[in-house]
Structures are given as structure tokens and as C-alpha cells.
């Protein structure tokens, strides 16, 4: 789960990491009032989950009330890389001399956390990593002990931060603690600004929390509804599906992440375009099947649906019963559905399926080809 | 012959009284797996499907001389269960549980390095040596005895590929589902090493997916070390960057690392043919046997 900047800053500020004063605003008037209260100059920043907000016009500086009004009306409601901006963060603009990068993430290959510091903050750190990997100083952390203070100091000094190195080390230690305490997968301050007085201030905040650990962080899980960016993805959360919306017209439902991805790939292989990734998971019963069809039919781009189930724990006859039940409730089938069942109780499932409502294919390839043809016919 | 599990594997099921644990214990017994005991705190003295249950894993393992543990414990308690299993020093721990928090797994992984135990998973379908033993939730009926070793990050994709092999009468020596999480016990390289050393595995199928760099590292390992023919498959060619495709580990990063294209290129440059579809994987295997 990705937190918005203002949410992450709230968490950072609670642990004592210095952040500029700021207020969240969802209308132009609120933004102007916030700017007046904070004092000029201010930065007005779109609260959406996209990288490169600044370049895309999602961050603007305002020196006075008129500029604040015009910046807020430009940004609120704008479409930023496909996402609608509903809130802006109005923030004290920090006068800085240097920009530093600090971050903590999981090195999946090593199976342990890694902390990173770079004197080249303020730009996309992945660009720095590609152009000048030595500019980022890294240190692995033993998860049994956590980040030792000396390790934090070492990376800060090695990054060449000079006078502010010990302050940055302290911020990094705090950042590691909050990474651990909140089951984060990634935390990042970019930039951590250095002021003329040699103070450090977190001008941005990134925090992603492990979805699998949200059960023990109810206060963060509660922020999620605010953070959902797409209506269908929100609906998928409610149904508890792994779902990703894409821009094609072949709706895809299957069981197991690898098999669903493979189904998407084969749709593409036969010249179709996948509309979504939807994994109904293992052991799915009738209700989940009904919900899955509802999800896919709710996407107005979908022209054809393919159901690909390879039963292990999931039983073909239960899936078939669910498909029948879902479709028999409808007055008409909105889009043609092709079903392929294999594995546990697949034959029983194929016998049950109401072939007045769905087409049945024996193999993955045949089912996908049929669904792609249906979608192409609808396009004509 | 086979790798890691066979007729002699003696298994304790951790979480045997839970819904999944009980159902799959029955399935494993039916398949022929030698399930010797179960462990669930507070349920010692009971029996599940004729299998005695103990309060602690240690007593279950020592009383029955067990060699392997299968973990069916809910995600919030899975790390604790794995620490308990690692402390018994069994040869093999297989964790089926999906949704183990990443930082929990990081601590388990660290402990694992101090032991001689092999861990498979978490978030995996398990391991099967057809005709002998299965540990996990793989549907036994689709597998047949044979000489192809299979290693995969995804469960149902494994079933699909096995199905394509079986249609051509190609059986399997052992199939290992290593799991789709970012931090796992046994990785591709470990599995490739085991299969390459197994005299009865004549070809290896490796099914990867987007995310991480395990497939690229495996490709380099194959190039330098593996003499048995390997055929690859990579799921997620059409996955967009920044979106998690079901598995916690299946994500192409914003900067474009972890893509299917990079994995396919790495495998092909190690002379590993990569099938466009599971059916073409089976074609490649057939031509290499």
C-alpha cells in the first residue's frame, strides 16, 4: 500500500523527522487560506501516486496569494498521468543549499534490508543509480539487530555529506526504525533539504507498507480508502481480489497469479489486448466467481471474457456452478464468455456448464483464441 | 530417483487441525506421503485422520523421527512456525502459507542461513516426486513418473505446464514450487543444482515470472554450471510497470528492472529456449529428451 505524501509526512513528523509546515487542501479557497496561514513562498503539490510529479506540472511554487490561487486551480482537478488530482499539499517552501537522498528498502535478493544515502538528491534516484551508481552509498542491515548507529554514520560520511553527516545519520536511523515499526517495504526522503543554517528538512516523503502486514497496522490500513486511485481497483479491494486494470478489451479471470499472467500473455500472443489481471485465488467458490464476473462486466472497455481455471485446490465443478449461477441471474449476458476448465473436477465442471450462456473450450490456446475473436468482432 | 523427497520422507504437518491443514493432510496421505505426526499448540493427544497431534513441533519430530515439516499456519503466525521448525533441525521445511509479512520473512531467512535445513516457500504449492511423495497442495493426479525436473514460482502455471508435458507422455522426476514471494528459501539456482546432480533428471523446466533478478541470476548459473538441458518460460510479458501482479514478488519496477524481456534475453543467451506458450515449452522439452 502506497501512502500519499501528506500521509507519509504525518508518519515521519510523528517520529521527529523535521518536515516543513504544511496543510492538505481539496479546494482552491482552502489552498489559498492554507498558503496565507503558512506564509509565502509556498509549494503546491498534487497528491497522487505518480513519479515525476514536478515535471508533469503537479508541483508549483507560489510567491503570493494570486500565484497560490492560480497554481491551486491549475493543479486541483487536473489529470496527472491518468490520475485525477483531488487534493493538494500546501507547504512552506524551503530555502536550501543542498539536496540529499535517504531511503530504506528490502534487498530481495539478499533477503535483508538495505539503507541508502546519496549527496545527489532531488532527482529520480533510479536515474542516479543508472548513471553514477557510486554516488549512492548502500549498507545492508542485519534484520535481527536493526541498523546500528555506526552504520548510519558510515554511509552518511562516505556519501561526503560533511557538516550535516551526523544529522543525516540521525534521520536515517529514525527512518529505519519507522520502516521496521510500520512494516514498510520502502521509505524514502528525496530530497532531504539542507538549509543555509545547515539544518535538514524532509521536503518529500515516500512510504509503502507491506499489504501482507496491514493486519497489524490498522491505523495505516484506514488510510487506504483515501489512497485508492481507480474505481474498479477500489471495487476489487472490497471483493478482496488481486486485480490490475489494463487498457485492452479482453476481460481475463483465472486462478493463480502465474497462470493469470500467462493468460494475459497468450491473449497478447494471439493479437488481443488484455483488459485486466484478475486472480480469484485458490479454492474459489460460487460467490467469488459471481463477484469476478461482476468486476469484469463493470469495465466498459471489456468486449469479451475468458475464464481460465486450472484446478488444484479450486474445483472445476464449483467454478462451473458459480458461472451458471452468476449468468442465470442476468437478463442478458453483457459480453460473450469463454470458459476453459482443467485439473480437479474439470470434467464434472464441463458437464454442468450451461452452454447456452458460455462457450467451452478444452485447451488454454483455444479458449484464448475464441475470446480474442469475440473481442475483435465487437470492435468491427 | 528424485530430489529432496521420496518414499523415505517422514513428514510432520504444522497446523494439521486447520481447514487447509486437515484437507491437504488427507490428500497427501491418499497420495502416499508418509505423514507421521501433526503439531498444533493445545491440541496434543488428538488425532487427525489417524495421525497423532502434538503440542510442540519438537516432540512431534523427535518421537517420530521426522525428516520434513509442512507448514499450513496462518500468515500472522507463520514466521514463528518456521523458527520452530528450523530449531528442530529437520532436513526440509515446506511453507505453503500465503501472505507472510516481508519483514518476518527477512528474519526467518536470516535464521535459515545458520542452519543446515532447506526451506521451500513460503507462498508455494510445495514439492512432489510423482508416485512417491508430495508435500503441499499440488494436485497429485496430474503428475506422472518420469525424467523431467520442474521448478516454478507459480502453482497453477506449474499445473498447466505439467498438463502440456503429460499430453505428450512426458513424466516428471520431481516438481518444486518455490513460491512467488520476494524472499524465499529455495531459489532457482538451488533447484537447478539439485536437478543437475540427479542422474534421473534428463531435462529441466524452469518457469519464472516478472519481478526481481532471480531468473537472470539463474541464467548465468546455467551458462556456467548446468549440463542438463533446460527449457524456460516467463509469465508477465504484458505486465505494466509498477503494478503487483498477484504475487508479492511479481512486479516490474518503475525503472524497468524485472521485466519479462530482460529475463527471456538472459535465458536465451544462456542457450535456454523460452517458450511463448506452455505448449511450446513442452515442444522444446520433447525435442531435448
TrEMBL record, chain A:
Keyword presence, Zinc-finger: no
Cofactor: how and how many bound: Binds 1 Mg(2+) ion per subunit.
Cofactor requirements of the protein: Mg(2+)
Domain ATP-grasp: start-end pairs: 9-220
EC id: 6.2.1.5
One of the GO biological process terms: succinyl-CoA metabolic process
Recorded metabolic or biological pathway in which this protein acts: Carbohydrate metabolism; tricarboxylic acid cycle; succinate from succinyl-CoA (ligase route): step 1/1
Chain positions recorded as substrate binding sites: 255, 312-314
GO molecular function: ATP binding; magnesium ion binding; succinate-CoA ligase (ADP-forming) activity; succinate-CoA ligase (GDP-forming) activity
Subunit structure: Heterotetramer of two alpha and two beta subunits.
Family: Belongs to the succinate/malate CoA ligase beta subunit family.
Protein name: Succinate--CoA ligase [ADP-forming] subunit beta
Protein's organism: Halocatena pleomorpha
From TrEMBL, chain B:
Listed Pfam families: CoA_binding, Ligase_CoA
PROSITE patterns, sorted: SUCCINYL_COA_LIG_1, SUCCINYL_COA_LIG_2
Active-site residues, as the UniProt record annotates them: 247 (tele-phosphohistidine intermediate)
Enzyme class, spelled out: ligase
InterPro entries the UniProt entry points to: Cit_synth/succinyl-CoA_lig_AS, Citrt_syn/SCS-alpha_CS, CoA-bd, CoA_lig_alpha, NAD(P)-bd_dom_sf, SUCC_ACL_C, Succinyl-CoA_synth-like
Binding site for substrate: 159
Lineage top rank: taxon: Archaea
GO molecular function, one term: succinate-CoA ligase (ADP-forming) activity
UniProt-listed Enzyme Commission number(s): 6.2.1.5
One annotated GO biological process: tricarboxylic acid cycle
Catalytic activity line of the entry: GTP + succinate + CoA = succinyl-CoA + GDP + phosphate; acetate + ATP + CoA = acetyl-CoA + ADP + phosphate; succinate + ATP + CoA = succinyl-CoA + ADP + phosphate
Cited Gene3D superfamilies: NAD(P)-binding Rossmann-like Domain, Succinyl-CoA synthetase domains
Gene Ontology cellular-component annotations: succinate-CoA ligase complex (ADP-forming)
Binding annotation for CoA: 17-20, 96-98
Keywords from the UniProt entry: Ligase, Nucleotide-binding, Tricarboxylic acid cycle
Pathway: Carbohydrate metabolism; tricarboxylic acid cycle; succinate from succinyl-CoA (ligase route): step 1/1
Domain CoA-binding per the UniProt entry, residue ranges: 4-100
Function of the protein: Succinyl-CoA synthetase functions in the citric acid cycle (TCA), coupling the hydrolysis of succinyl-CoA to the synthesis of either ATP or GTP and thus represents the only step of substrate-level phosphorylation in the TCA. The alpha subunit of the enzyme binds the substrates coenzyme A and phosphate, while succinate binding and nucleotide specificity is provided by the beta subunit.
Subunit structure: Heterotetramer of two alpha and two beta subunits.
Similarity section: Belongs to the succinate/malate CoA ligase alpha subunit family.
Protein name: Succinate--CoA ligase [ADP-forming] subunit alpha
Name of the gene: sucD
Amino acid at each position: 500500500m502506497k501512502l500519499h505524501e501528506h500521509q507519509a509526512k504525518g508518519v515521519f513528523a510523528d517520529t521527529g523527522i523535521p518536515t516543513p509546515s504544511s496543510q492538505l487542501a481539496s479546494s482552491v479557497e482552502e489552498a489559498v487560506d492554507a498558503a496565507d496561514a503558512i506564509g509565502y513562498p509556498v509549494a503546491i503539490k498534487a497528491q497522487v501516486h505518480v513519479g515525476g510529479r514536478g515535471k508533469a506540472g503537479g508541483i508549483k511554487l507560489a510567491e503570493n496569494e494570486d500565484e497560490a490561487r492560480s497554481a491551486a486551480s491549475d493543479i486541483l482537478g487536473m489529470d496527472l498521468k491518468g490520475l485525477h488530482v483531488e487534493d493538494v499539499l500546501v507547504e512552506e517552501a524551503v530555502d536550501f543549499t543542498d539536496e540529499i537522498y535517504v531511503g530504506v528498502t528490502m534487498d530481495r535478493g539478499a533477503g535483508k534490508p538495505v539503507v541508502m544515502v546519496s549527496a545527489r538528491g532531488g532527482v529520480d534516484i533510479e536515474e542516479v543509480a543508472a548513471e553514477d551508481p557510486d554516488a549512492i552509498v548502500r549498507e545492508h542491515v542485519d534484520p535481527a539487530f536493526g541498523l546500528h548507529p555506526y552504520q548510519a554514520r558510515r554511509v552518511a560520511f562516505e556519501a561526503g555529506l560533511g557538516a550535516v553527516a551526523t544529522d543525516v545519520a540521525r534521520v536515517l536511523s529514525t527512518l529505519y526504525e519507522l520502516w521496521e515499526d510500520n512494516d514498510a517495504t520502502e521509505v524514502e526522503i528525496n530530497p532531504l533539504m539542507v538549509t543555509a543554517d545547515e539544518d535538514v528538512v524532509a521536503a518529500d516523503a515516500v512510504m509503502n507498507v507491506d499489504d501482507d502486514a496491514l493486519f497489524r497496522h490498522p491505523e495505516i490500513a484506514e488510510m487506504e480508502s483515501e489512497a485508492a486511485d481507480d474505481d474498479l481497483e477500489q471495487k476489487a479491494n472490497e471483493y478482496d481480489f488481486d486485480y490490475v486494470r489494463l487498457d485492452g478489451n479482453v476481460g481475463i479471470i483465472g486462478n493463480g497469479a502465474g497462470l493469470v499472467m500467462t493468460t494475459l500473455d497468450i491473449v497478447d500472443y494471439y493479437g488481443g489486448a488484455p483488459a485486466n489481471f484478475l486472480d480469484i485465488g485458490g479454492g474459489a467458490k460460487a460467490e467469488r466467481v459471481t463477484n469476478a464476473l461482476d468486476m469484469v462486466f463493470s469495465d466498459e472497455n471489456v468486449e469479451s471474457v475468458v475464464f481460465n481455471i486450472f484446478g488444484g485446490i479450486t474445483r472445476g465443478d464449483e467454478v462451473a456452478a458459480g458461472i451458471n449461477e452468476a449468468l442465470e441471474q442476468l437478463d442478458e449476458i453483457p459480453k460473450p464468455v469463454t470458459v476453459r476448465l482443467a485439473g480437479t473436477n474439470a470434467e464434472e465442471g464441463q458437464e454442468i456448464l450451461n452452454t447456452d450462456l458460455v462457450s467451452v473450450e478444452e485447451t488454454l490456446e483455444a479458449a484464448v483464441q475464441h475470446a480474442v475473436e469475440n473481442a475483435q468482432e465487437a470492435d468491427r | 530417483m528424485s530430489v529432496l523427497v521420496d518414499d523415505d520422507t517422514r513428514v510432520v504437518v504444522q497446523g494439521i487441525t486447520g481447514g487447509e491443514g486437515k484437507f491437504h493432510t488427507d490428500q497427501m496421505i491418499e497420495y502416499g506421503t508418509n505423514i507421521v505426526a501433526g503439531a498444533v499448540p493445545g491440541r496434543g493427544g488428538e488425532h487427525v485422520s489417524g495421525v497423532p497431534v502434538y503440542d510442540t513441533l519438537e516432540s512431534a519430530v523427535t518421537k517420530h523421527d521426522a525428516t520434513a515439516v509442512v507448514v499450513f499456519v496462518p500468515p500472522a503466525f507463520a514466521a514463528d512456525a518456521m523458527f520452530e521448525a528450523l530449531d528442530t533441525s529437520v532436513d526440509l521445511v515446506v511453507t505453503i502459507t500465503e501472505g507472510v509479512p516481508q519483514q518476518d520473512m527477512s528474519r526467518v531467512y536470516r535464521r535459515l542461513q545458520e542452519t543446515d535445513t532447506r526451506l521451500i516457500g513460503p507462498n508455494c504449492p510445495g514439492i512432489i516426486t510423482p508416485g512417491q511423495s508430495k508435500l503441499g497442495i499440488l494436485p497429485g493426479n496430474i503428475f506422472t513418473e518420469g525424467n523431467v525436473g520442474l521448478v516454478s514460482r507459480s502453482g497453477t502455471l506449474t499445473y498447466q505446464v505439467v498438463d502440456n508435458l503429460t499430453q505428450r507422455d512426458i513424466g516428471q522426476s520431481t516438481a518444486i514450487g518455490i513460491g512467488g514471494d520476494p524472499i524465499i528459501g529455495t531459489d532457482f539456482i538451488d533447484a537447478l543444482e539439485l536437478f543437475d546432480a540427479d542422474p534421473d533428471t534428463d531435462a529441466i523446466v524452469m518457469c519464472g515470472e516478472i519481478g526481481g533478478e532471480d531468473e537472470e541470476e539463474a541464467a548465468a548459473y546455467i551458462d556456467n554450471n548446468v549440463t542438463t538441458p533446460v527449457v524456460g518460460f516467463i509469465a508477465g510479458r504484458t505486465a505494466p510497470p509498477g503494478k503487483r501482479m498477484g504475487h508479492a514478488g511479481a512486479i516490474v519496477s518503475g525503472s524497468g528492472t524485472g521485466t519479462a524481456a530482460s529475463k527471456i534475453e538472459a535465458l536465451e543467451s544462456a542457450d535456454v529456449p523460452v517458450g511463448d506458450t506452455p505448449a511450446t515449452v513442452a515442444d522444446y522439452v520433447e525435442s531435448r529428451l
